[in-house]
TrEMBL record:
InterPro entries: PI-PLC_domain, PLC-like_Pdiesterase_TIM-brl, PLipase_C_PInositol-sp_X_dom. It comes from Nilaparvata lugens. The lineage of its organism: Eukaryota, Metazoa, Ecdysozoa, Arthropoda, Hexapoda. GO terms for molecular function: phosphoric diester hydrolase activity. Residues 155-322 form the Phosphatidylinositol-specific phospholipase C X domain. One of its GO terms (biological process) is lipid metabolic process. It holds the Pfam family PI-PLC_X. It comes from the Eukaryota. This is Phosphatidylinositol-specific phospholipase C X domain-containing protein 1.
Amino acid sequence: MDNNVFKRKILNARNWILLVITFLGKNEVSFANTCLKPQLELLVTPPDADLGNNIRIYWSFNRTYDGLWIGLYSDEPKQSSDEFLVANKIQVKELTGFETTGFFEVSDVKNMTYDQQTYLGYTAVAWTVVDGKDRAIVITKLQTYPQWMNHYWEFIKNVPMTDLFIPGTHDTCSYKGDPPQESDAFVKKHWAILKSVPLLDNWSLTQNREIKGQLVSGIRYLDIRVKREDDMYWSCHNSIPMHPLNQIIEQVVEFIVNTEKEIVVFDIHMLVSGIDSNEEKDAFVSYLKQSFTFNNKQLYVPPSKVNQLWKATPELILAEGRVIISFIDPDYQKSNNMDILWPMVFQYWGNKQYVNDLRDYIYATIPTRKASENMLDTLTSVMAELTANLKRIAKDRKNDLSAQSEQHSIEIHSWFMDPAVALQTNVLAVDFFTIYGVARLAFIWNERKYYKSTCDSQQTIADDYYQKVIIP
């Protein structure tokens, strides 16, 4: 081999190694690797942020394209790059970035279907100029993913639950929803209190879609907190009642009976009050068994029927049920589970008020998750959200949970595009999930895990389930 050629090969290899070292050292995602397919995604900002319910376009390209620009459309253009265009063209100057468009989400959860994806009114297309003409690079739509596990079944069916990338929500039931229809004065009283105190409203809400909207959008891990008050079970955020628990469960049941292979983790992660003694827990578990039974068929997965529990695969779990109910009290779960309660999910909760502190916590704990033997057999969830405390609320009342999600979502998203974090992530739970793209992250990483690669397989380049890549 020519000596100069050999030196160039060594230099290129050294530069690639330096790129990887730099990438890991800075905790940033580098898209210099051309084995990654382009990513284009439509996100929705939280409802109470300054630009609430706004359509945001996120992009990440692995290489440069001539004349690169992105358009927002009311429908997929077929004839020309101007057809159905609704916003000014975005001239792309950086390979990774985002733009908040000024157009608002118009979707109604009541119109979201279970059997197929629901189009939610917007399409984004990235274009390049070839021979003086616009050519599409990648096309994506704002849409739901009600049966993504069924779609990716061959990719995930034999993977232990502890090795899947599962999209989830933090404080799942903390959303506004519709005013209560119950005649119960207690229900209406709590709703009125919550809505009459803006500070409670702004700092207690963590999601912008009800349970049905979360599930059909791809969420499969539900973080449930419960209290019992006036002979009624409530979902709650800390001590604040949010919605009657029966309304939450009804939406899960409706989703399960209308889909085929979707598995939902219903994680009862906090018992706030009123469910303290074993007798009270017995009554609560009996309520759960009854609530998750439909037409005399149990929808929950009995733990006694599944060997290895969290190490079991979706295919083995599906044979026994569709809803995994995990429980926060390990002693009670082991001794009195009534064959319905699974072991608790371990939550990596940093309890951080600032994004830099949250990043440091995640990079200090998640990349080494599997090095801890007691985590190998446990479903684990990264709680990737900033939390509030009284000091922070008093200091910065306007910068509430929705505002923080809007400001920091792209940075947090980038951490989970980093293989060092993503390959060790089991469940990813966030606030206001529509701004984070957690379902898309699950698709990307479950594909890559299946092919045992940090690259995008050529077999999935043309898969148009969540986007259509035309020019890799």
